[in-house]
Amino acid sequence: MTSYKEKKVISIGIVSELTGLSLRKIRYYEERGLITPERIGNGGSRRYSFADVETLMKIAEKREEGVQTSEIKKELVKERNQKQVRNQMIRGQINAHFNIRK
């Protein structure tokens, strides 16, 4: 089941209002691979999650500190990998505790 934070339901206009970032900056961060909105419909409207909004806020803070987008991307990839490893470890512990075999 997908967490509410991960559901892609927010339009780019609302994301812009929530973050204070221009539409152009949001699209730029997408082009740089820092965020990945879902595309829906024939026009390919972008939909973002609450997690994407949080990520955009982190990106904006880092950019204000002078951090380059390439460095931000490296940090984001590292965080995602750590989260995946942590989730796998937790699943393994739960499976071991309840004697669940795959």
TrEMBL record:
UniProt GO molecular function: DNA binding; DNA-binding transcription factor activity
Transmembrane helix listed as a keyword: no
Keyword Repressor: yes
Source organism, top-level taxon: Bacteria
Positions of the HTH merR-type domain: 9-78
Swiss-Prot/TrEMBL keywords: DNA-binding, Repressor, Transcription, Transcription regulation
PANTHER family: HTH-TYPE TRANSCRIPTIONAL REGULATOR TNRA, REDOX-CYCLING DRUG-SENSING TRANSCRIPTIONAL ACTIVATOR SOXR
Protein name: DNA-binding transcriptional MerR regulator
Protein source organism: Mesobacillus foraminis
